Amino acid sequence: MLTELTIDNVAVIEHAQAVFGSGFCVLSGETGAGKSLLIDSLNMVLGKRTARDIIRGGERSASVKAVFYAPWSENLLREMLIEPEEDGTLILSRVIESGGRNLCRINSSTVTLSQLRDIGDSLVIIHGQHDNQKLLCPAEHLSILDAYAENSAVLADYKNKYADFRSAAQELSELKAMGEKRDARIKSLEESIGELKALNLKDGEEVKLRERLNILRHCEHMAQTLCEANDALNGAGDAKNNLYRAMQALEKAAQIDASLKDTAENIADAYYRIEDAALTVADRLASDDYSEFEMDALQTRLDTIEKMQTKYGMDLQSELEKMERESLDLEDFSETLQKKEREYAVLLAQAQTAANALTKSREDAAKRLCATVGETLEYLDMPKVRMEFSFTSGPLTSHGAESGEMLVATSPSEPPKELAKIASGGELSRIMLAIRSAFAAHGGSATLLFDEIDSGVSGRAADRIASLLAALSRTRQVICVTHLAQIAAAADCHLLVEKDTSSDVFRASVTRLDDVLRVSEVARIIGGENITPATIEAAKDMIAERKRTEND
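Structure (tokenized):
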């Protein structure tokens, strides 16, 4: 329930505070007084799209704060990591700066605009002329029916199964398209696989080729260094012979002095190691002759490998395995296609079953909605008007297996037709009110706000609208912007919106009326500017009669 709305620097409103009560609240005032600004301000604090030009001229920012009593919002707040107030109070605030920056808060926590909008949608439903336009758009009618049917679980199940079915349909389509190119692809793969197999690339071959080529390119230098090493090891006065003589001498000395035994063994070990190294160098020097033919052959082989890598990728073995797998898959194409067709058929059947369940939920809800709306329209002085919901079956789409449209017949002898061809502004307002009334039995937001629901209505129909709004207010807060005395007289709380024109700068204000001022305002609505004793008495009688009606 909305308890308080504080507005600062919104258009012509410098500062205003509206205090609401439970039950049925009415907003009235002269045309242009600023009633629509209260709705705009409420939309702003509920997180709706708001233009920057809403900021009062000469000011840097506009701000709105709304206080609700909403103890049921505790779980939603905790999901947003916001600690709820113990007394159930919920405070929303939003500041819009001239530079475009938004500062949004829930209680004392800063939140994003989308979070403000999410909780705002659960607090208030605002019905205005835009909603009447939605009624004239058949594309919106299924969503209205689904909301009434409360079939979100059925709808979600269908959408999931439809998504799976569409994915399978796409895969099947792509597979069939692949089948048309299958023969050409098989031929191309056979050629590529043959080319790679003919290459006969061995593991690590490329690395070995590059190492061997590097040796051959430096063959002359290699031979020179090996000769130097060989001369040092095997030439005159070489280290090996010197070590041999030292080894023999120390072996003889160790026979005399045992303490030299380890030294003799170390020298012997060094000698045999150097002898092995000398033999290796000599063998390599004898075998490593330069071969221009070998170098050309190795370079040609490496060029062939690099050409294949450019064509197929650096990891030729991996590419070969991948192509072989694809070739096998294409060879088994018929079996793969049949498997995919069976999978598609299963998912189609599941989606169709889910669509049937969705259709049934809509058909059942449509019967209930049309019956309820029909009863309400009869009460609203439209006894001959009946509403029907027309379904047209079609292929599966993201919203189900049918389209749907609300149709209205204005007399028993007339077939139902589109709303746009039949309903006047006043009739649309009453039809929307009847639909909202039907929704009220399904729970929903704590506050309903109707912006000039009485447009195009007068007389007994206005009395009936007032009674229906009052009845709705028994289970939730109802706020109504009105120009009708019958509706104003039915209110539990009455707020007057006025604009001060005494200076060059217009200022709007909001006042909660006591019983005396309320009579004066209802009298103004009845008689206009010239309020007479007769209009005062008429206003008193109208308010008293409404109280008697509500108490009966």
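The chain has a mean pLDDT of 86. The radius of gyration is 46 Å.
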